[in-house]
Amino acid sequence: MPDFAWPWMFVLLPLPWLLRLWLRPAAPGQALHLPQPGLVLHEARGATVRGALPWLLALAWLCLLAAAARPQRLGPPQAQHHSGRALMLAVDLSGSMQTPDMELAGQSVSRFGAVEAIAGDFISRRSGDELGLILFGSRAFLVTPLTYDLSAVRAQLRGAAVGLAGTQTAIGDAIAVAVKRLSALPEQSRVLILLTDGVNNAGSIAPLDAARAAKAAGVRIYTIGIGATRMRVPGFFGSQLINPSADLDADMLTKIADMTGGQFFRATDSHQLAGAYRAIDALEPMPQHGPSLRLHHELFRWPLLAAALLLLLACWPKWREQRA
Q1: Which fold is adopted by the domain 84-281?
Q2: CB 224 within 8 A of CB 120
Q3: For 126-158, b where at least 16 C-beta lie within 10 A, e where not — what string?
């Protein structure tokens, strides 16, 4: 049985009969040629039309009212998973993120290439969270404000490029931008995932000062230090082995995470990077149940079509008489 969004439309049901009482009959020769619900059609002789015509008009009027009342069919309940969590991603775009010391699907890729693929998968799994994206290098920029549109966050991450925000690393500024956005949201679980491969060497805010502000605002920070510990590079006397992550300040990232109730992850390859995001998934689980939503399917087209057919049937004898 359909529900009606505007059931008060049925109050208009007696309107044609009220109009019949209030309006004077049309003089012979001035009668309306088009049928109107509830009004008696007068032929040229002034005789009252008998038969099925009044019933057709009454049914047509009832169908019109049914269409105007917006009949709807409720769909099955669908659980909505809105966690109430505001989660911000801060991704390092400094020049060192172009270092090709990661491997993905058997191929050598840059650090940012691995982040783009693995973080994109993490974003896809966070349906129900509000996500935002900060890209930082020499400066930090809020690229995507907090949103439930995960595809927009993924698209912005895919469209980023190393060096876009400068070649240095402003970790403190990135944390400060995230805290400013997250702390404006009342009574929500606030999370920042910060990924970098270096040491803070730019910006106007010290990372530990920004971490103290995050702690005061109730923002948990999960830090990920990315970069291999061994990499073979060509040299003058042949290839040599180096540590491409010598500049990574793991101690500072650990302090930031511990201070805010988060956790530090070290990702020396793509498997460890994926494991870090899986661990954060487990530490910040999605709710299993949410408020249910029932979709409304509009059905007004069917009574509207029935009304049109009934009016055509009512007009058909008059049209044939005029043709004759």
Answers
A1: Rossmann fold (3.40.50)
A2: no
A3: bebbbbbbbbbbbbbbbbbebeeebebbbebbe
Q: Using CA of residue 125, residue 127, residue 130, residue 134, what is the dihedral sign?
A: positive
E strand or H helix at 91, and its extent?
strand 85-92
Q: Of 234 and 130, which is predicted with more confidence?
A: 130
CA distance linking residue 12 with residue 18, whole number of Å: 10
- Write down the residue that tokens 């709807």 correspond to: 72
- Model confidence over 120-157: pLDDT tens digits? 889 988 887 889 999 999 999 999 999 989 999 999 99
Ordered by start, the domain boundaries in the chain are 1-20+52-74+294-323, 84-281
> Torsion angle of alpha carbons 69, 72, 77, 81, nearest 10°?
-70
Nearest alpha carbon to residue 276 among 128, 121, 145: 121
Q: Which residue has the tokens 């040629």?
A: 33
- What does the alpha-carbon distance between residue 259 and residue 293 come to, in Å, rounded to a whole number? 39
- The pTM (predicted TM-score) of the whole model is 0.65
- Spatial strand order of the sheet with 3-4 comes to 3-4, 71-74, 296-298
Look at the chain and count its residues: 324
Q: What would the pLDDT profile of 27-49 be if each residue is shown by its tens digit?
A: 555 544 544 444 444 443 333 44
How sure is the predictor about 22, in pLDDT bands with cuts at 50, 70 and 90?
confident
